[in-house]
Amino acid sequence: MRKLLHFRDFSIFKKIMAAFLAALLPLMLITWIINQQGAASIRKGISESMMNTTHFYLDSLDQEVDRIYRYLPNYVMDTDLMELAATGDVMSAYERSAKVLEIQKRLHLMKDSSPFIQESRAYVPLIERTILSSSYETKVEEQEYQAMRQSTNMYDQPFIYWQNRLFISMQYPGSTVRDPLFAISIELSTNKIIEKLSQITNSREGQTAMLRMDQEWSLVSGSNTGLLEVMKQLAVDKQEQQAKEGYETIKFEGKRYLTVYRYSELWNSYLVSSVPESAILGPIRKYQVWFWCAAVLAVGIVLFFSYSLRRLIYRPLMRLIYSFRRVQQNKLEYIAIDRGEDEFGYLYHAFNNTVSSLKTLIEENYEQQIRNQRSELKRLQSQINPHFLYNCFFVLCRLIKSDHQKEKAYQFCLYIGQYFQFITRNTEDEIPLSMEMDHSRTYVEMQRICYGDRIEVEFDARVPDMMVPRLIFQPIIENAYVHALGNMRGNGKLRVYGEPQDNTFILCVEDNGDSISDLNIQQLNDRLARPHYTFEETTGLINVHRRLQLRYGEEYGITVSRSDLGGLKVTIQLRMS
Fold first, then answer.
1. What is the C-alpha separation between 260 and 45, in angstroms, rounded?
2. Where are the domains of the chain?
3. Do 157 and 166 touch, CB atoms closer than 8 A?
4. By the number of CB atoms within 10 A of the CB, which of 183, 285, 290, 382 ranks highest?
5. Which residues contact 540 (CB under 8 A, 6 or more apart)?
6. Sign of CA dihedral 73, 78, 81, 82
7. What is the pLDDT at residue 7?
8. Which of 81, 519, 34, 534 is nearest to 291 (CA)?
9. How confident is the model at residue 559 (pLDDT cuts 50, 70, 90)?
10. Measured between alpha carbons, how far is 316 from 333 in angstroms, rounded to an integer?
11. The CA-based dihedral angle spanning residues 294, 299, 302, 306, taken in that order and rounded to the nearest 10 degrees
């Protein structure tokens, strides 16, 4: 309810713009939601498609490998191989060659039985030969032979990964008590397997990896090693969660990748496939571009509408309001009529007629009295403006002369510039109180350079938004420096604070000076209580008091009293409305 009442106080321009945006933004939001839901639907569909593709290729690969190692025992029980491995050293060369040729035929038949078999081998230690499908004149490589003997339970761990090569092996006899007579190994073609895996994401610029979880080997269909590490971490996380399959989005180098994973019991591995979302959502990007084009167009419409509204309604209305405010400030000025016969043209004519009538009344009754009062205020203000500036150049010369005060001299010059700018840039009789406070802070910073850390200043004046006569506050602070703090032997303290009281704003300046007595304070109050008395030497304090009374009335102005800090307390009363 409070927000609604606060909205009623908004300007007409803000209300119209709020209504326009209230109609436009829901349409943009609905469009954005539709676009996002479409992207989510496509992402889900592609994920399910990739998952089905992963199932198909992984199942076909599992079936092929399962068929290979289930038929491997039939080759191990070959009688020719058993006879050669047991009595090959006593055979004649002819018999040994005949046996080898028969074994090679079977090995060649085994190799051709599957596109995933790169080579089939038989290791015969007795004759120190490794028989390949096409050659047997090779010696037994001891390291390779020992690696092929590592698998003791083929059905639990069918694969041997050795020197970046993948094998399925079986020895005879299978007992590990004594050395085997021979061993047969099937070397799987990793290139063929990788080629098979790459078909999952080949058309979408992705990467697929078969990641063995209990050994440090993997088959990868891409070359992005950084992405591979992220995929490995995903597989580790899913193994800890005991998740068998699924899909999710991973991030790598600022890009999002749609990733599907599935666990294979046979390989004891995770098959992980990652595809850039940019490749998946390619079709919908076009609609997103159109959405942002529509958003830019909507912004352009809002800007055009606000410009038109501002030009046709807001500016003429603000001119009228500004003119009324000028009338409140006793500045009766006509509005230049640049409108036709519309509503604003009528209001401008009516306003000018009203101003003309007011001018006539003022000239007849009050103009002379106001002119006299403004003349006195200008005279008092002219006495305040040049106050204390004759000391600035002396301080600046002293800072420049010192070799260690160059930075302070530079800062002091900036403060002097700000001080002169405040005095000369604005000829208005009244300014915002916040601007007056900023000018006083500049003066305090100048004095801080002059006095160093000997004088502590506490500024706690949060001022309201109101207009006041120029130079009403800085002379009070200057009075504290000149008459109280400047000649103290010890450390000085200056406190500035303000607070509202009903329709009055109170500004206080206190110091801990020890040069003023209670009698002096009483005498100063007596002088302030006689506003029409003319002094031979008019001080800044008296001038400010006189100007405030001219502006606000006799009940406002300055009073002085004993400060809680021990020095003088100057209280300034300002009317807020």
1. 12
2. 332-379, 391-575
3. no
4. 183
5. 384, 387, 475, 476, 478, 479
6. positive
7. 47
8. 34
9. very high
10. 16
11. -160
Instruction: Please tell me the distance from the alpha carbon of residue 63 to that of residue 55, in angstroms, as a whole number.
Output: 12
**508 and 497 Cβ atoms separated by less than 8 Å:** yes
Residue 381's nearest CA partner among 427, 412, 335, 436 is 427
- Calculate the alpha carbon distances from 3 to 6, 11, 21, 22 in Å: 5, 15, 18, 16
d(CA 95, CA 34): 79
User: Average pLDDT of 340-344?
Assistant: 70
**Left, alpha or beta for 471 (phi > 0: left; psi -120 to 50: alpha)?**
left
DSSP string, 62-97: HHHHHHHHHHHHHHHT-HHHHHHHHHTTTS-HHHHH
For residue 372, name the pLDDT band (cuts at 50, 70, 90): low
**Position of tokens 């006569």?**
469
Q: H or E element: which one contains 577?
A: none
Q: 292 — phi, psi (to 5°)? A: -70, -30
Closest by CA position to 463, among listed 495, 429, 500? 500
Distance CA 177, CA 374 (A): 121
CATH number of this structure's domain 391-575, picked from the four choices 1.10.10.10, 3.40.50.620, 3.40.50.1820, 3.30.565.10? 3.30.565.10
pLDDT higher at 202 or 48: 48
Q: What is the radius of gyration, based on Cα positions, of the chain?
A: 48
Q: Classify each residue of 484-495 as buried b or exposed e, where b means 16 or more C-beta atoms within 10 Å of its C-beta.
A: bbbebeeebbbb
Question: What amino acid is encoded at 59 in this protein?
Answer: D
* pLDDT band, very low/low/confident/very high, at 80 (cuts 50, 70, 90): confident
3 state DSSP class of 291: helix
Q: How far apart are CA 361 and CA 374, in angstroms?
A: 19
Q: Which of 295, 297, 347 is nearest to 324 (CA)?
A: 347
N-term to C-term CA, the chain: 27
Nearest-CA neighbor of 291 among 554, 529, 40, 29? 29
| Both structure tokens of 566 | 């021990």
